[in-house]
Amino acid sequence: MNKHTSVLFDLDGTLLDTANDLGEALNYVLKNKGLKPVDREKYRPIASDGAKGLLELGFGERLSEFDFDALRLEFLNYYEQNIAVHTDLYPNIEKLLFTLNEINIPWGIVTNKPEYLSKILVPKFPQFDQCRTLIAGDTLPQRKPHPAPILFACKEMGSDPEKCIYVGDAPRDIEAGNRANMYTIIAQWGYILDINECKHWQADAITLNPLDILATIK
Length: 218
Prior knowledge:
This protein is an alpha/beta fold and 218 residues long. The chain has helices at 19-32, 40-43, 50-59, 68-81, 93-102, 115-121, 148-157, 171-179, 195-198, and strands at residues 6-9, 16-17, 88-89, 107-110, 134-135, 164-168, 183-187, 205-207. Helix content is 38%, strand content 12%. The strands form two sheets. A six-stranded parallel beta sheet has the order 5-4-1-6-7-8, with helices on both faces. The protein is globular.
Protein backbone atom coordinates (compact mmCIF):
# COMPACT_ATOMS: atom_id res chain seq x y z
CA MET A 1 0.00 0.00 0.00
CA ASN A 2 1.21 3.47 -0.86
CA LYS A 3 1.94 5.71 2.10
CA HIS A 4 0.07 8.96 2.52
CA THR A 5 1.25 12.46 3.28
CA SER A 6 -1.77 14.24 4.80
CA VAL A 7 -4.92 13.45 6.79
CA LEU A 8 -8.40 14.95 6.91
CA PHE A 9 -10.92 14.14 9.62
CA ASP A 10 -14.61 14.42 10.15
CA LEU A 11 -15.35 16.19 13.46
CA ASP A 12 -18.39 14.83 15.33
CA GLY A 13 -18.03 11.12 15.96
CA THR A 14 -14.45 11.04 14.68
CA LEU A 15 -12.30 13.55 16.58
CA LEU A 16 -14.82 14.67 19.19
CA ASP A 17 -17.55 12.85 21.04
CA THR A 18 -20.19 15.57 20.87
CA ALA A 19 -23.24 13.33 21.27
CA ASN A 20 -24.14 14.23 24.83
CA ASP A 21 -24.17 17.97 24.21
CA LEU A 22 -26.22 17.47 21.05
CA GLY A 23 -28.58 15.19 22.95
CA GLU A 24 -28.98 17.77 25.70
CA ALA A 25 -29.98 20.33 23.05
CA LEU A 26 -32.56 17.92 21.65
CA ASN A 27 -34.03 17.19 25.06
CA TYR A 28 -34.18 20.91 25.87
CA VAL A 29 -36.33 21.49 22.80
CA LEU A 30 -38.50 18.46 23.54
CA LYS A 31 -39.05 19.58 27.12
CA ASN A 32 -40.12 23.03 25.93
CA LYS A 33 -42.74 21.38 23.74
CA GLY A 34 -44.01 19.12 26.52
CA LEU A 35 -42.57 15.96 25.01
CA LYS A 36 -40.57 13.13 26.56
CA PRO A 37 -36.74 13.26 26.44
CA VAL A 38 -34.75 10.80 24.37
CA ASP A 39 -32.46 8.37 26.17
CA ARG A 40 -28.73 8.61 25.58
CA GLU A 41 -28.43 5.19 23.95
CA LYS A 42 -31.02 6.22 21.35
CA TYR A 43 -29.61 9.62 20.38
CA ARG A 44 -25.90 8.69 20.34
CA PRO A 45 -26.01 6.77 17.02
CA ILE A 46 -27.87 9.70 15.40
CA ALA A 47 -25.49 12.41 16.61
CA SER A 48 -23.57 12.57 13.31
CA ASP A 49 -26.79 13.56 11.55
CA GLY A 50 -26.89 16.88 13.40
CA ALA A 51 -29.95 18.95 14.26
CA LYS A 52 -32.14 17.54 11.48
CA GLY A 53 -31.52 13.90 12.34
CA LEU A 54 -31.89 14.45 16.06
CA LEU A 55 -35.10 16.45 15.75
CA GLU A 56 -36.56 13.78 13.50
CA LEU A 57 -35.61 11.18 16.10
CA GLY A 58 -37.05 13.12 19.03
CA PHE A 59 -40.28 14.34 17.48
CA GLY A 60 -41.00 11.33 15.30
CA GLU A 61 -44.42 11.46 13.66
CA ARG A 62 -45.25 14.67 15.54
CA LEU A 63 -42.56 16.67 13.76
CA SER A 64 -45.06 17.90 11.16
CA GLU A 65 -47.06 19.58 13.95
CA PHE A 66 -44.28 22.11 14.48
CA ASP A 67 -42.36 24.71 12.51
CA PHE A 68 -39.19 22.79 11.73
CA ASP A 69 -37.07 25.89 11.13
CA ALA A 70 -38.11 27.28 14.52
CA LEU A 71 -37.26 23.97 16.22
CA ARG A 72 -33.88 23.88 14.50
CA LEU A 73 -33.10 27.44 15.56
CA GLU A 74 -34.06 26.68 19.16
CA PHE A 75 -31.90 23.56 19.07
CA LEU A 76 -28.89 25.39 17.61
CA ASN A 77 -29.18 28.34 19.99
CA TYR A 78 -29.15 26.05 23.03
CA TYR A 79 -26.32 23.99 21.58
CA GLU A 80 -24.24 27.08 20.85
CA GLN A 81 -24.53 28.20 24.47
CA ASN A 82 -23.62 24.72 25.79
CA ILE A 83 -21.35 23.49 23.01
CA ALA A 84 -18.59 21.81 25.00
CA VAL A 85 -20.09 20.98 28.39
CA HIS A 86 -19.96 17.21 27.87
CA THR A 87 -17.81 17.04 24.70
CA ASP A 88 -14.36 15.48 24.70
CA LEU A 89 -11.73 13.95 22.47
CA TYR A 90 -12.03 10.26 21.72
CA PRO A 91 -9.34 8.05 23.30
CA ASN A 92 -5.98 8.22 21.48
CA ILE A 93 -6.99 11.17 19.29
CA GLU A 94 -4.72 13.52 21.23
CA LYS A 95 -1.79 11.12 20.82
CA LEU A 96 -2.55 10.70 17.12
CA LEU A 97 -2.63 14.45 16.46
CA PHE A 98 0.52 14.99 18.53
CA THR A 99 2.31 12.36 16.45
CA LEU A 100 1.12 13.83 13.15
CA ASN A 101 2.44 17.22 14.27
CA GLU A 102 5.74 15.70 15.36
CA ILE A 103 6.35 14.05 11.98
CA ASN A 104 5.15 17.12 10.04
CA ILE A 105 2.07 15.52 8.49
CA PRO A 106 -0.49 18.25 7.73
CA TRP A 107 -4.02 17.51 8.88
CA GLY A 108 -7.36 19.25 8.86
CA ILE A 109 -11.06 18.95 9.53
CA VAL A 110 -13.95 18.65 7.08
CA THR A 111 -17.34 18.54 8.78
CA ASN A 112 -20.99 19.06 7.87
CA LYS A 113 -21.45 21.02 11.08
CA PRO A 114 -22.34 24.68 10.44
CA GLU A 115 -19.25 26.88 10.15
CA TYR A 116 -20.17 29.25 12.96
CA LEU A 117 -20.54 26.33 15.40
CA SER A 118 -17.38 24.64 14.17
CA LYS A 119 -15.39 27.83 14.73
CA ILE A 120 -16.73 28.04 18.29
CA LEU A 121 -16.11 24.40 19.14
CA VAL A 122 -12.71 23.64 17.60
CA PRO A 123 -10.75 26.41 19.42
CA LYS A 124 -11.96 25.04 22.76
CA PHE A 125 -9.54 22.14 22.31
CA PRO A 126 -5.85 23.14 22.26
CA GLN A 127 -5.07 19.77 20.68
CA PHE A 128 -6.45 21.26 17.45
CA ASP A 129 -4.09 24.25 17.43
CA GLN A 130 -2.12 22.92 14.45
CA CYS A 131 -5.17 22.10 12.35
CA ARG A 132 -4.31 23.37 8.84
CA THR A 133 -7.85 23.78 7.54
CA LEU A 134 -11.42 23.74 8.82
CA ILE A 135 -14.11 23.27 6.17
CA ALA A 136 -17.67 23.17 7.45
CA GLY A 137 -21.02 22.18 6.04
CA ASP A 138 -21.77 25.65 4.70
CA THR A 139 -18.26 26.84 3.81
CA LEU A 140 -18.96 25.89 0.18
CA PRO A 141 -22.21 25.48 -1.75
CA GLN A 142 -21.66 21.70 -1.57
CA ARG A 143 -21.32 19.50 1.49
CA LYS A 144 -20.47 15.86 2.06
CA PRO A 145 -21.08 13.40 0.44
CA HIS A 146 -20.03 15.76 -2.37
CA PRO A 147 -16.23 15.63 -2.68
CA ALA A 148 -15.83 19.41 -3.10
CA PRO A 149 -15.26 20.22 0.61
CA ILE A 150 -12.48 17.71 1.08
CA LEU A 151 -10.86 18.60 -2.23
CA PHE A 152 -10.95 22.25 -1.17
CA ALA A 153 -9.38 21.30 2.17
CA CYS A 154 -6.56 19.50 0.36
CA LYS A 155 -5.96 22.60 -1.73
CA GLU A 156 -5.75 24.74 1.39
CA MET A 157 -3.19 22.33 2.89
CA GLY A 158 -1.23 22.07 -0.36
CA SER A 159 -1.86 18.32 -0.38
CA ASP A 160 -2.37 15.85 -3.21
CA PRO A 161 -5.85 14.28 -2.74
CA GLU A 162 -4.58 10.91 -3.92
CA LYS A 163 -2.03 10.97 -1.10
CA CYS A 164 -4.52 12.11 1.51
CA ILE A 165 -6.46 10.01 4.02
CA TYR A 166 -10.03 10.86 4.95
CA VAL A 167 -11.34 9.50 8.26
CA GLY A 168 -15.02 9.54 9.19
CA ASP A 169 -17.81 7.63 10.90
CA ALA A 170 -20.69 8.02 8.43
CA PRO A 171 -21.44 6.78 4.89
CA ARG A 172 -21.30 10.35 3.54
CA ASP A 173 -17.70 10.65 4.77
CA ILE A 174 -16.56 7.54 2.96
CA GLU A 175 -18.51 8.41 -0.19
CA ALA A 176 -16.96 11.88 -0.29
CA GLY A 177 -13.47 10.51 0.25
CA ASN A 178 -13.90 7.82 -2.39
CA ARG A 179 -15.24 10.34 -4.92
CA ALA A 180 -12.13 12.44 -4.28
CA ASN A 181 -9.86 9.40 -4.85
CA MET A 182 -8.63 9.52 -1.26
CA TYR A 183 -7.75 6.64 1.02
CA THR A 184 -10.79 6.26 3.27
CA ILE A 185 -10.88 4.95 6.82
CA ILE A 186 -13.99 4.26 8.89
CA ALA A 187 -13.72 5.50 12.47
CA GLN A 188 -15.44 2.54 14.06
CA TRP A 189 -15.20 4.22 17.46
CA GLY A 190 -17.73 6.84 16.30
CA TYR A 191 -21.51 6.97 15.95
CA ILE A 192 -22.03 3.78 13.99
CA LEU A 193 -25.36 2.09 14.62
CA ASP A 194 -24.63 -1.18 12.83
CA ILE A 195 -21.01 -2.33 12.65
CA ASN A 196 -21.86 -4.93 10.00
CA GLU A 197 -23.45 -2.29 7.76
CA CYS A 198 -20.33 -0.14 7.64
CA LYS A 199 -18.49 -3.02 6.00
CA HIS A 200 -20.50 -2.20 2.87
CA TRP A 201 -19.47 1.46 2.70
CA GLN A 202 -16.55 0.59 0.41
CA ALA A 203 -13.91 2.15 2.64
CA ASP A 204 -10.29 1.19 2.26
CA ALA A 205 -10.00 0.35 5.95
CA ILE A 206 -11.93 0.14 9.22
CA THR A 207 -10.30 0.72 12.58
CA LEU A 208 -11.27 0.84 16.25
CA ASN A 209 -8.07 2.62 17.26
CA PRO A 210 -7.11 6.05 15.89
CA LEU A 211 -3.42 5.19 16.27
CA ASP A 212 -3.78 2.54 13.55
CA ILE A 213 -3.99 5.43 11.09
CA LEU A 214 -0.27 6.03 11.57
CA ALA A 215 0.52 2.78 9.75
CA THR A 216 -0.72 4.39 6.52
CA ILE A 217 1.52 7.45 6.85
CA LYS A 218 4.86 7.86 5.11
